[in-house]
Write a structure and sequence with these properties.
alpha+beta, two-stranded antiparallel ribbon, about 45% helix, about 30% strand, elongated
């Protein structure tokens, strides 16, 4: 399902105009992204958590050039679904 399909589905279910739904969805994504950029986790009870995971510095190899590369420590976004959400998906 694409973002456009999600917007259409929400618009049909709620009766709200697509433009308003699209603006709301875009704003939602901006808030979540902004929070993660600021190292703040976002929690949705019954759905899941968007968290920032810290990756340590490591040494990797560039096989084609036969050299070592140092990858600096960095943060990555991570999503962990809630247990109730996982159970619903398992049951279908």
């Amino acid at each position: 399902m694409t973002k456009a399909e999600v917007i259409n589905e929400i618009s049909e279910r709620t009766g709200v105009e697509k433009a308003i739904v699209q603006e709301t969805v875009e704003c939602f994504f901006k808030v979540v992204k902004g929070s993660l950029v600021n190292n703040e986790n976002v929690y949705f009870r019954g759905f899941g958590s968007f968290t920032v995971q810290k990756r340590a510095k490591k040494v990797a190899r560039n096989i084609s050039k036969n050299t070592q590369i140092t990858i600096p420590a960095h943060n990555i976004p991570k999503f962990k679904p809630a247990k109730t959400f996982v159970e619903k998906v398992k049951k279908g």
